[in-house]
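Input chain follows. Return structure tokens only.
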Amino acid sequence: MNELLKILVHRPRPFLELPFVDWSGYSFASGHTIGATLLYGQLALFIVPALKARHWRALTSSAAIMIVLLVGFSRIALGAHYLTDVLAAIIFGILWLAFCLVAGKPMRRVNQQYQVAEIVTLPEGGEVVALPVEQTKAPAQNLLS
């Protein structure tokens, strides 16, 4: 998605005369910022539902947001991107996370329905069949709550 955006927009990088600046490619949108948004956003989406206490949820969400903002700031500070490149990357990352969250909802529903599956191999055709098995014990307690 990011490479397609870079090719479509064709925006050059900021020009800076510094010894450590040797950027190639186009500027819009920041790939590092999109990557950070997706990585830390997905981690937060996995971790936050498992946390019972509000302060842990708030801390986890705040940490993910802070890391994404720091990555975006570093891209601007190094002269690799404009502010709009970073803001667009954060928006595109959030939109992709939202899409994945909505698209993955039916899969989560199926996984909750069938907690355990037993694999059975049939002797005639050798086909593998997965059969749902009812849960026999209570789910494990969360250690982070």
